[in-house]
Amino acid sequence: PKQEDNVVAKKKKKLSLVDENRIMVFVRVRPIAKKEAGSRCCVRIVNHCEVYLTEFAAQDDYLRLKRVRGRHFTFDACFSDSATQQEVYSTSTSELVESVLQGKNGTVFCYGATGAGKTYTMLGTVESPGVMVLAIKDLFSKIRTRSCDGNHVVHLSYLEVYNETVRDLISPGRPLVLREDKQGIVAAGLTQYRAYSTDEVMALLQQGNRNRTTEPTRANETSSRSHAVLQVMVEYRVRDAAMNIVHRVGKLSLIDLAGSERALATDQRTLRSLEGANINRSLLALSSCINALVEGKKHIPYRNSKLTQLLKDSLGGTCNTVMIANISPSNLSFGETQNTLHWADRAKEIRKKASDANEDLLPVPETEIDQVKLVLELQKENR
Ligand code: ADP
Ligand code: MG
Predict the structure, then answer these.
(1) 148 pLDDT tier (thresholds 50, 70, 90)
(2) Ligand 1 centroid vs 87 CA: distance in angstroms?
(3) In this structure, are residues 323 and 111 in contact, taking their beta carbons and an 8 Å threshold?
(4) Residues near 185 by Cβ (< 8 Å), separated by ≥ 6?
(5) Per-residue pLDDT for 372 more than 80?
(6) How far apart are the two ends of the chain, measured CA to CA in Å?
(7) Is residue 324 classed exposed, middle or buried when 0-12, 13-18 and 19+ CB atoms within 10 A define those classes?
(8) Which stretch of 103-107, 157-161, 284-288 has the lowest confidence by average pLDDT?
(9) How many CA atoms are closer than 13 Å to the CA of 223, on its beta-carbon side?
(10) In what residue span(s) does the Kinesin motor domain sit (predicted)?
(11) Does the interface ipTM go beyond 0.90?
């Protein structure tokens, strides 16, 4: 009975972002889309932290489907297709906003295949603003309630990483060069937009999103290979009792990642094309950095891509990291959904192992080819 009590106690212990070495992992299922109408649903939210994925196969010549197998996945929280933007924000990100006000850095990224709901979750619409907008709104309201104890200054920058090129999304122009200075890695000439209220932010970000690079083959679609990064810098200056100036800076990075489908290609042919020009270096480098961080490695390979260089001061150390995995409920996206859930599950697993032993799980990839090998290895492991 004592052991049972222990299990219950463990289950009850509220997980917190403030824990060391923790990547909080969330899953969000989007509603079924028009073009998926009539397809089978293969995802079921079992309870607030559990999701069940069903695999179907053709049963007969009429392509009727039968259930072959299924699997449970557990995360910090699972959001169903009826979860509101506010629910997703409050559960996943509001704690980070609080810690940014304390002068800490934090990162939230959305991960998943193209069409899975990443941009909806991060940016949202005017009627249902997403995490980026709700975070800024919350930030301003928190600042307002504390305005008696000093002055906060909020700056926003919004950029994209596309094919290892960094571009300003607020004032688009020539590619930006990354430079290392005293504060860390900065994109030279990147617009730092001084924000005074929430009202202007949605329009600014929507315009920014229209500035994202579009792939020639997907004329009307925002590129599935572009990462959009919103950085919110909060500066706080006040004189303490001894008249010393207290200066605090916190930075929140909110990232709408490129579609994961090509980085997680399952068949050998697609994988081979990854070794060529098609590899999304930033996406793979991000997962290697996260692997290295949660495994407690000394060397974190930030230098491997533009995205990870930009996030050097916002991943690891005392920073908090949140991953939101976006999935479609439809059986038509089964493969992508399975990959996304496996990847998200792994992010969670490594964390556990990191806390009880300093095991070496996988080598830290140093080159692109090593990264491709890593993908292969992870896929083998996941099978
Ligand atoms: P991604 O950015 O991952 O490619 P999108 O965010 O553009 O995907 O989502 C694809 C479509 O699904 C969009 O039309 C979007 O408005 C819709 N959508 C995604 N998630 C939701 C949701 N939770 N509720 C309502 N509509 C959603
Ligand atoms: Mg998108």
Answers:
(1) low
(2) 16
(3) yes
(4) 178, 179, 309, 310, 312, 313
(5) no
(6) 35
(7) buried
(8) 284-288
(9) 17
(10) 22-350
(11) yes
Spatial separation of the C-alpha atoms in residues 92 and 86, rounded to whole Å? 10
Query: Which of 27, 30, 80 best tests ligand 1's pocket when mutated (most atoms within 8 Å of CB)?
Result: 30
Specify the ligand 1 atom closest to the Cα of 112. 3
For β-strands 184-187 and 178-181, DSSP reports them as antiparallel
Name the 3-class secondary structure at 100.
helix
User: H or E stretch including 228?
Assistant: strand 226-239
As a whole number of angstroms, the distance between CA 42 and CA 329 comes to 6
Rounded to whole angstroms, the Cα distance separating 351 from 345 reads 10
120, 125, 255: residue to mutate for ligand 1 pocket, most atoms within 8 A of CB? 120
Return the pLDDT at 367: 47
Distance 327 CA to ligand 1 centre (A): 10
Encoded tokens for 11: 């289950």
Which pLDDT tens digit goes with each residue over 29-43?
A: 999 999 999 899 999
Q: Assign 3-state DSSP to the chain and report helix, strand, coil percentages, each to 5.
A: 35, 30, 35
Q: How far is the CA of 328 from the centre of ligand 1 (A)?
A: 9
- CA gap 251, 101 in Å, rounded: 9
Quick one: which atom of ligand 1 is closest to the CA of 120? 6
